[in-house]
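User:
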Amino acid sequence: MLLTVSKRLEFSVARRLHADSWSDAENLAAFGPETKARHGSGRNYVAHFVFTGPVNPATGMLINISEIKERAGKIVRERFDHKFLNKDNPSFCDVLPTAENIARQLHLDVAPLFSDVDATLAACHVAESSERSATFYADGAGEANYWFDFSAARKTVSPHLNKEENARLFGRATSIHGHNYRARLTFRMGRLDPKAPLVRHDAIDACLRTLHDELDHRYLNEDVIGLKDRPITTESLARYVYERVKATMPLHRVRLHERDDFFAEIWGDESVFLGMRMSFNAAHRLNAVALSDAENAKLYGKCNNPLGHGHRYLTETTVGGEYDKRSGTLRDFVAFRKAIAESLAPWQDRHLDLETDDFRNAPSTGENIVRALWPKIDNRLNQQLVRLRLWETPNNRFTLRRA
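Assistant: Predicted structure:
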């Protein structure tokens, strides 16, 4: 099992994407209209610093998130926030500040600051808008993400099932209904080249325009020729988007949300995943029995408040398994949601330390909560859980993956 802890930080910068050695036409093709901003353009960035390592059994922490905020925050404030990166940050004198390169530089700057702890910085993820983000990994790999939206109507049915089978499997969704879909395309490079864009603007812009024109405001069962003989499910539609993009670009994976809390994901090896988000409300207090009152207060800060505090926790459960081509499904939606809800129910509106048995002898840190929740959900999903995420707040995320 692989556990990671992620801290979210925000910063605002100006930048210019323009290679002096390229012609205006070459820059436009590579970076799009933004390259014409002679004095730079601006973005409000969100960075996620993702750490991995062993959990200290006494404290229940992989790393002290306050330390991430303090150390990484200092780098962000001094080298990135409210800077014109091309001029104010020497790292971008010869390397253009694309989202991928910003993520890469944040990793290079922040990773050495944690040489004194057991945790290591596994990745830096940077979002520059709701449509564009990038990730840099410790092994040198890089990813570029592009999001696009479309609205469409559908009947959730499979042409390979009879009417009774469709009704039994999909229920009311067999009637015409609609979704505001949101898709993420992820492109990956095993070794990021800071001198060249991972994805050229002209290529991705043409791709997204074509997909949007084909899918937006369509009745998917009848208006899209490529879907005629396919099940009209979220899994099947995600696979169709993957195939359409892969035919022209080196796509790594696709995630398709039919709503904010539910998505299907298709990877290059044809793996299919389903993800669902669900929240629960609970109180807790961070306190390690092995530490003194003074040590607890110093380690956990305000989270050690004797009377406790609470969160609206958000979970994201991702499952794998065998995709059924006949029905176009990986797992029954209702059963999937029920398994998660039943797993969370014992913690809903409870004090985790005082009213459950899960944290009698272990601090209710995010690390321990996600580890305690894993078997509860996994056992209800036939051991097909592949990733479980827990947001304690929008800024603090804990993720457990099946290795």
